[in-house]
Recover the amino acids of this structure.
């Protein structure tokens, strides 16, 4: 079922309208993914939490990558972002959606 099909203007190509829907959906998905990476929807656990026997977890293991590899990864994404900005326009949007 397609919502808002009545808003489609016959002056435009159907392909353009469908592309815009796909671009908007992709953008929404990317925003949700970025929010999740910032901690959206994650349960926080207190370090003062005790189990049934009164034991406290002192040092919880991290699932995160090592800091050096995260730094390198961040630098690569920064360079890619700068290249995309230099590309600009529709080409930039196509590459970001891909």
């Amino acid at each position: 079922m397609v919502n808002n099909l009545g808003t489609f203007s016959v002056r435009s190509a159907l392909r353009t309208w469908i592309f815009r829907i796909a671009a908007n959906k992709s953008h929404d998905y990317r925003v949700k993914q970025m929010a999740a990476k910032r901690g959206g929807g994650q349960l926080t656990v207190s370090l003062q939490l005790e189990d049934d026997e009164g034991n406290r977890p002192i040092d919880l293991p991290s699932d995160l990558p090592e800091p050096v590899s995260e730094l390198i990864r961040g630098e690569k994404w920064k360079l890619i972002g700068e290249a995309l900005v230099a590309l600009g326009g529709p080409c930039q949007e196509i590459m970001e959606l891909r």
